[in-house]
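Dear Dr. H.,

I hope your travels went smoothly. While you were away I took the liberty of generating a structure for the chain from your last submission, since the lab meeting agenda had it listed for discussion. I wanted you to have the full record in hand beforehand rather than looking at slides cold. The sequence, exactly as received, is reproduced here:
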Amino acid sequence: MTQSSWWKRLLLSLVAVIVVALLAIWWVLSASKGQLDGELAVGVSAPVNIGFDAAKRPYVQSESLADALTAQGYLHASERLWQMELVRSAGRGELAVLFGRDMLDSDKSLWRMGVPQLGQRLYHGASDNMKALVEAYVLGVNAAIEQQSMPSPELMLLGAEVRPWQAQDVFAVGALIAFQSANNHSNELLRLKLSQKLTDNQMRLFTEDGSDIGHFPFIIADDLSELSETLASVDPDWNPKMPRVKFGSNGWVVAPEKSQSGFPLFAFDSHDQLGLPNLFYEVHLFIGDDAQIRGWSVPGLPGVINGYNQSIAWGFTNIGDTQDLYVETESSDQAHHYLHDGEYLAAVAERVELKVKGGESEPFTIYHTPNGPLISESPAISFSWTLHQLTDEMLANYGLEALLKLNQATNWDEFNQAIDKHAGPTLNATYADVHGNIGFRTAGILPVRGSGEGLAPLDGALSKNAWQGLVPATEMPRLLNPESGYIAAANARVNPKDFGVLVSADNAAPYRIERLQQVLSAAPKLTLGDMQGLQMDWYDGQAAKVLPSMLAKLNGASLSPQQTQAVELLQAWLSRPMATSDSAPALIFQHWYLSLANTMFNPVLGDELYTRVLKRSYVLSFAVDQALLEAPAAKAWDFDWPKLLSESLHHSLEQLAGELGPELVAWRLDDKQGVKLYHELGKAVPALDPVFNSERYPWGGTPAAVGRANYKYHTPFEVSHGATVRVVAEMSPQVRAKAVIPGGQSGHPLSDHYRDQFAAWLAGDLIDISAEPVPAQLTLTPN
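The corresponding predicted structure, in token form, is as follows:
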């Protein structure tokens, strides 16, 4: 055999191996897809018909709510089983069962913080009716699991067992959502770390409005490693295996008098981590003769989180600080005894068995102080959370009970009655209905703090620092039909400080809400098209506010010709600071801003701590913006502005020129900025990128815009957070709505609907939603 023939045979053999491997992968992925046509016996009480539109959005027709939820459970598990397994495992504190022993620390942290225990309490406290509805949902989930001939590819690659669902799992998912949507404990830890480097007065710069944090309890800096590891293990920004189900959003409603059609208008876009599959699954339930539940659900939970029905529409934005940390003082003579008002009290021990992959288990003990469970023992830090303090009555109505009542509400009074039963997480809701009303309501319960504003850990030895009670949901702020003719919410402070109880001192910057108010107040009449356009508005409110100060403080510095040209571009751009994809000054501003932040704080904080600050973008932007705007909190800092600004501008322009060439006017924001949707496996295993991930697309926008293109400051211009759903609706007698999600309805990489909506999402387009059920393709029947 010649050498040439040998190489040809080897090449053919390699090609054959690759083809066989690809066919095997294709077969595995195909076999894990659920049945979405024909008939299937699942145990419903009467036949349920399910049709799908062109985007594979399901329209379910059933005779009862229970059967509708069975169908929803079947659809969730057919299309999103991996996503469901991930959030269930986290909610139950069983990530080590899914991934192995390396996730045991995350499970310990979740148990310390009381997430699995909350899920258990919610299940045991739920009403019989609620449990029956959850069991109906679980019936559909398990029917889908039994129907699939192969597990999802993610579970197969992990070698993980496909476990049937139980009703307790649904409540565990609810507990995880409540935990992640409420936390600011990572910000508290960050400020505690900052306190080791800065004076109390300097610390004020790192709060939303320069609040006086007060004196920090003394802790040696080296002792914070255990606490850091505990919090990092449950933080998706630090632990990529931790699912993220935290909500942040824009929402606004327009009254009939400001609407061109004469009907209320509703707009909502939920801001979360972008990825595949998308956080939300769209579903439309038609129940009986005229009831509807329509909107965007989280796989693992029955009903919809944000949505509408035949009468009302609602959307939630994240708000409210309901978690605090306390520094405890342990006795030097007796282990696990902690100082409380002059005497050492024994902590209460809670013993649990942590499950590990392969059937192993490991005992673990959690210690509870009067302020809450210890989440770190060295130093001793306890954790308070409003949902630890739910009464039996609250448990019976919490979460799912309130959510399903909300899903079925038909007017403002019924909407408020449902919200009155909601304990947490604390959220703001915008509301519109077919009766001509618009409204706003804060949902959830809040702590009455004895001291502080929840910005940093307090001394747990003093009862005066402990919570003094809870503000019930019935006393939360609300608003109906304001004279302005519109209501907007965008994670910023919307409740006045004189409300009596602090809602949160850790809010988003006001740029998005200010832009919404500017646009909505100026327009005499608005259309659905206007609402849709505003969702993609890339006006940079942060630049409009701080860039004039940056340019003014640059006076007196010696500038190069290149710096002078950049300043001229930025000055011209300020007349209309839109962060469009093709904008050179938008790129220069954002790059300069981050370079300035680094120049201001990295030398003071050091690389490790400054990296932590970068991962908390809100905290860093508060500091930079307040300093530039000469807020009182900046007085403790002696910034040499001409030097800082000229050096940081020089660094930015030098770096950009090295990457994009010397012609500033030829630069574009999307030369640097883009968005890519990642699947957990596709991100962890580069070889799986073309199967599980999307392509990377150039994109515009800014973290401060209404049309949010948010990135973490430590990975600039890589857009990772944005609208996980955009929806607009006209609340006419037959509601008209359209929406889009990034990615698609399916969680199966080979599905035509895995990422089919991404192009429309990038373009700002929305897909019409049928007002009526569509022809049935799948029928679920009684056994």
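Two observations you may find useful: The first helix runs from residue 3 to 31. The chain has a mean pLDDT of 90.

With kind regards,
E. W.
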